[in-house]
Design brief:
By secondary structure, this protein is an alpha+beta fold. The chain is built from two helices and ten strands. The protein has one domain: Multidrug-efflux Transporter 1 Regulator Bmrr, Chain A (Alpha-Beta Barrel), CATH 3.20.80.10.
């Protein structure tokens, strides 16, 4: 894990696809391609920043019941579809760190980030957000992601 920093993020408007099920089975590439195709054919202006918002802790919720949103940042007005929805992530203070490796190592990244949050007098304020800085790659049967992990926080 990289160094943890605090950052005040501005509002981010996104188009997203809801995914239910184990986080290890999220078809990132398929969802990103679908979102790009939708954005190009709509009035949305894609900013080519990709996100995952993870609503459930897989250590506390059965993997089959975990929920996440896979998203692309957009600019301008657009109408969603039955599958692709639109929302704004409210700007807020975030603890952030980098992850560069297999998805099965995210648990370590999150453990380190949560420890820093606790040790520095903060507490989580909302669902964690991952910003993907490169396309997912597959290596030796594992999905490799380069991302920035944001955790909305507030002082205790």
């Amino acid at each position: 894990m990289g160094k943890v920093k605090l950052r005040n993020m501005k509002d981010i408007k996104i188009a997203y696809i809801e995914h239910n099920g184990p986080y290890s089975e999220v078809p990132y590439g398929d969802y990103f391609n679908e979102l790009i195709s939708w954005a190009k054919s709509s009035t949305a202006k894609p900013k080519y920043r990709f996100y995952g918002i993870f609503h459930d802790d897989p250590n506390l919720v059965e993997p089959a019941k975990c929920r996440c949103d896979i998203a692309i940042q957009i600019k301008g007005d657009a109408n969603g579809t039955e599958k692709i929805k639109i929302k704004t992530i409210a700007g807020q203070e975030m603890a952030m760190t980098k992850h560069n490796g297999p998805t099965d190592q995210y648990e370590e990244t999150y453990a380190d980030l949560n420890k820093w949050v606790e040790d520095n007098g903060y507490e989580p304020n909302h669902s964690p957000i991952e910003q993907y800085v490169s396309k997912p790659k597959e290596k030796n049967g594992k999905i490799i992601l380069k991302s920035i992990v944001y955790l909305p926080v507030k002082k205790k």
